[in-house]
Amino acid sequence: MGKIVFFDIDGTLLDHEKKLPISTKQAVQALKDEGHNVVIATGRAPFLFEDIREELKIESYVSFNGQYVVLDGEVIYKNPINEQALKSLSNFANLKEHPLVFMANEEMKANVTYHSHIDECLQTLGAIHPEECADYYLEKEIYQSLLFCKETHENEYAETFNELNFIRWHSLSMDVIPFRGSKAQGIKQFIDKVGYQRENVYAFGDNLNDIEMLQFVGHGVAMGNAPDVVKNAAKYVTKDVSDDGIVYGLELVGLLK
C-alpha cells in the first residue's frame, strides 16, 4: 500500500505568484506513478480551486479547512457552521462595520454590496467580489465564512464566540469555521474512510491553518516560506515554494528519489 500525501494550495502547491511550478506538477505525477495517493487540503472553497484539481488530475480533497471532504468526487464528510452562530456573528460584525462573506459548497455571497477589503483579499485567490445576500446563511449550509477585519480586532471575536474558530489568512481577513474544525479533523475523516494509519500520512503546508494538520499526520512538512510558528509544528522543513520546495521536501521524506 502506498502512502498518502496532503498538499495545501497557496504558498505550497502554488508559488508566490499563484502559479504552479513545473517541478511541482511533475512531482505530483511522480508520486502517483509510485502508487501514492495525492490529496489537496486547503482553506479554499471547492469552486476556488477547480482549475488546480483539473491540472493535477486530483479528485480527492479536504476543503474549507476540513469542513467539506471529498473522496474520488464523492462527499464523505460535511461540517457546516451552526446557523445561530452565524446569525450572532453577523449581528456582531455589523456593529463593528466588518463585512462578511458566507461560503457554501458551490458559491459564496457577501453581506454588503461592495467592500474594498473583500475585493483585495479575494483577488489574491483569483476570485471576484461576490454578490450581496446578507441572509445567505439562512438559505444554504455554510462551511466557512470570511471575516474582514484587522489583527487588532481578533481577540474580541475569539472571546465573544467560543463556538467558532478564527484563523487569519490575510492581514485584512480571517477564516471562520466551527470551533473544533480544522484540516486535521478533515484529514482524520479521510484517512479513517480509506484505511490509512498516521505513520503513512504526509502533509505539506505553509500557513497558520496548517499547524494542526502538520502536527496530526505522521510526517508534517513545512515550506521554507512558512512562518516560524508553522515550521515549529512540523517534523521537517523544506525549501521555499519557489525554490522547488515540494520536490526537495518529497526527497527529504523519502517519497521521491
How big is the Rg? 18 Å
Could you give the count of β-strands?
Answer: 13
Distance between the termini: 18 Å
Find the structural class using helix and strand composition: alpha/beta
Poorly predicted ranges: none
Strand numbers in spatial order across the main sheet: 5-4-3-2-1-11-12-13
Strand content: 15-25%
Order of helices and strands: EHEHEEEHEEHHEHEEHEHEHEH
Number of helices: 10
Helix content: 25-40%
Classified by CATH, the class of the largest domain is Alpha Beta
Number of structurally distinct domains: 2
How would you concisely characterize the structure shown here?
It contains 10 helices and 13 strands.
Please supply descriptive tags for the structure shown above:
2 domains, Rossmann fold, Hypothetical Protein, Haloacid Dehalogenase-like Hydrolase, Chain: A, domain 2, five-stranded antiparallel beta sheet
Structural overview:
This protein is an alpha/beta fold and 257 residues long. It folds into two domains: 4-78 and 181-252, 3-Layer(aba) Sandwich (Rossmann fold), CATH 3.40.50; 83-178, 2-Layer Sandwich (Hypothetical Protein, Haloacid Dehalogenase-like Hydrolase, Chain: A, domain 2). It has ten helices and 13 strands. It has helices at 22-33, 50-56, 83-96, 116-123, 136-139, 154-160, 183-194, 211-216, 228-231, 245-252; strands at residues 4-7, 37-41, 61-63, 68-71, 74-78, 100-103, 108-110, 144-148, 164-170, 173-178, 201-205, 219-222, 236-237. The chain has an eight-stranded mixed β-sheet with strand order 5-4-3-2-1-11-12-13, sandwiched between helices. It has a five-stranded antiparallel β-sheet with strand order 7-6-8-10-9, with helices on both faces. β12 (219-222), α9 (228-231) and β13 form a beta-alpha-beta unit. It is globular.
